[in-house]
Write a structure and sequence with these properties.
395 residues; alpha/beta; Rossmann fold; three-stranded antiparallel beta sheet; 17 helices; disordered C terminus
């Protein structure tokens, strides 16, 4: 696999960092998760359990190794630094300044391992007026301007359907780490990466920023091209109370659909600019799609070259045959479900390791690999720097 031989130390929790290192793990990296006592990664307890683990934790920590260190103890910090001597990547998601107070900042790690790629993920970055503000995804999306354009049927901001700031940060971090590793092969030196969730999400707005950058105004959401201001980029209700989408305004798609619906007179309007002038087209399509069920429309559209899709719920989406053939829904030997690997190489493809680590399961193995002997292990446990042996007996 592409990342075999890469060793990653991951101190992050929740989603952006763990998702970043899960992508690396799925492609062969050795990922060591340093979890805090007493309960470890909070995602171990978030959501319903299946097979002894939450799906969130299973899909962000499968195949990884776990060690539970209390980094407030100097002995735990020293043990972690021993691990970092041979690491390629270090990931942390503390509030800015915390890693430095712990003695685990980039300069400290660089001094013992100049090749290390150090990635900090935070809500607002390591500098700027917001750097010390606490925030999770929703607050970051709000300050990035994205909640303001995510409107419900009442025209008011609605809760986003996915944690876009978390995932944007994860993907930006993944790209940053890969570039730094590539350069390290040439220069022999790693780098420090400052990832802001807000920066990452605002970096995703190229196709919607026109009103702000070109006309110096906030978007009028209901009339903008990508948010319902065009008849061919909208959600429509069907006769059975379900929904379908049109998502392609190119002339060929417009002509194909409106000719099939015997309304070629609306083609010029449909291919024009977004705004209130599109209302006659929108009203026609609303009335039309209310005449049949979603299943009937699925059958009707199957013969047309049009950007169309029915709205599926998450259960339906993961049960879809296309998703199954793309290996995006996987089942382990115990029947537990996993999200598949979205990056598909023709050579050296990723491989899912379905094993989910118990808290502190690999502590002894990890520390011994760094040269820590039995006496030192006992001292770490006695002073509280290292959690006790895993209660499952798997350590």
């Amino acid at each position: 696999m592409k990342l075999e031989g890469i060793k990653v130390i991951d101190l992050s929790l929740f989603l952006p960092g763990p998702h970043l290192t899960q992508m690396m793990c799925d492609h062969g990296a050795e990922v060591i998760c340093v979890e805090p006592p007493p309960d470890g990664e909070p995602a171990r307890a978030f959501g319903p359990l299946a097979g002894g683990h939450t799906p969130w934790f299973r899909n962000t920590h499968r195949g990884k190794k776990s060690i539970c260190l209390n980094l407030k103890h100097e002995a735990a910090r020293d043990a972690l630094l021993r691990l970092c001597e041979t690491a390629d990547v270090f990931v942390e998601a503390f509030r800015p300044g915390v890693a430095q107070r712990l003695g685990l900042d980039y300069q400290q790690l660089y001094d013992i391992n100049p090749r290390i790629v150090y990635c900090s993920i935070s809500a607002f970055g390591q500098y700027g007026p917001y750097r010390d503000r606490p925030a999770h995804d929703l607050s970051v999306e709000a300050l990035a301007g994205l909640v303001s354009v995510n409107l419900g049927g009442d025209g008011k901001p609605a809760l986003p359907g996915v944690p876009a700031a978390d995932m944007a940060a994860s993907l930006m971090a993944f790209g940053g780490v890969m570039m730094a590793l590539l350069r390290c092969r040439q220069s022999g030196r790693g780098d420090y990466i400052d990832i802001s969730m807000q920066d990452a999400l605002m970096g995703w707005t190229q196709n919607v920023i026109g009103p702000v950058f070109a006309e110096d105004r906030a978007p009028e959401v209901q009339w903008e091209r990508g948010w319902g201001g065009r008849g061919f980029y909208r959600i429509y209700e069907t006769a059975d109370g379900r929904f379908l989408t049109l998502s392609g305004n190119e002339p060929k798609f417009v002509e194909n659909l409106l000719n099939a619906l015997q309304r070629p007179d609306l083609i010029e309007l449909a291919t024009g600019g977004p705004g209130p002038q599109q209302q006659p087209l929108i009203e026609f399509l609303q009335a039309t799609f209310k005449q049949k069920s979603l299943r009937q429309w699925d059958e009707w559209f199957s013969a047309l070259d049009v950007c169309y899709a029915g709205v599926l719920d998450l259960k339906q989406a993961f049960a879809d045959e296309h998703v199954a053939q793309r290996d995006m829904r996987l089942s382990d030997a115990d029947g537990n479900l996993h999200i598949g690997i979205p990056i598909k190489y023709s050579r050296e493809p990723g491989r899912v390791d379905f094993a989910v680590p118990a808290l502190n399961q690999h502590a002894e193995q990890i520390l011994r690999s760094a040269g820590i002997d039995d006496r030192q292990l006992q001292q770490l446990r006695q002073c509280g720097a290292l959690a006790a042996a895993d209660p499952t007996g798997k350590e």
